[in-house]
Amino acid sequence: MHFDVNEIIGFGAAVLTTIAFLPQVYKTWKTKDVSSLSLPMLLLFFIGIVLWLIYGFLLHSPSMIFANSITVISSLLLLYFKIKYSKN
Amino acid sequence: MHFDVNEIIGFGAAVLTTIAFLPQVYKTWKTKDVSSLSLPMLLLFFIGIVLWLIYGFLLHSPSMIFANSITVISSLLLLYFKIKYSKN
User: What is the count of structural domains for chain B?
Assistant: First the structure.
């Protein structure tokens, strides 16, 4: 298996920005506190990540596909929590 | 000037995920409330965005360079606010 420098840097970027969201998802799930989360921010971010994922496929970038596949789930969960817990 | 479909999708992704952070920066600057922001999350995210910016230059991706140049500033501001306002 061959690794090039570009993909090592891209993979490092992917891992860091992907795992960064996990504490936020856990915290929101645990506390059910969504007051400080902005709904327009979550919507814009989710749609943006869907586009980054498509762009990753178009560029054949393994790092972008990996990172954005996970972040699309994290951001969808945050959006779901925001809508669900805001109703109460 | 020539546009291809890849760069239109990438640019849309870049614009959405970049502007998504601006309300968070504004809110944090205005309220000085950083209690719900996680320092490890902000650190991981900032370092990750620096790597995405380098990766964007290596792939010669205008959308990645544009988006991550702005997000590196947004995330650095949030990190600065977190450290500054946590001391009080």
Answer: 1
> What's B71's domain CATH number?
1.20.1280.290
8 A C-beta contact, residue B63 and residue B13 = yes
Q: Which ipTM was obtained for this model? A: 0.81
Chain A residues whose CB is inside 8 A of the B38 CB are: 23-24, 27
Query: Rounded CA gap, A17 and A31, in Å?
Result: 22
User: Count of A–B CB contacts within 8 Å?
Assistant: 104
Look up the pTM and report it: 0.80
Burial of A84: CB neighbours in 10 Å, binned 0-12, 13-18, 19+: exposed
Residue A71 has pLDDT above 70, yes or no: yes
**Tokens 């393994």 correspond to what residue?**
A62
Residues with Cβ < 8 Å from B17, sequence gap 6 or more? A44, A45, A48, A49, A52, B67, B71
Domain that holds residue B25: 5-86
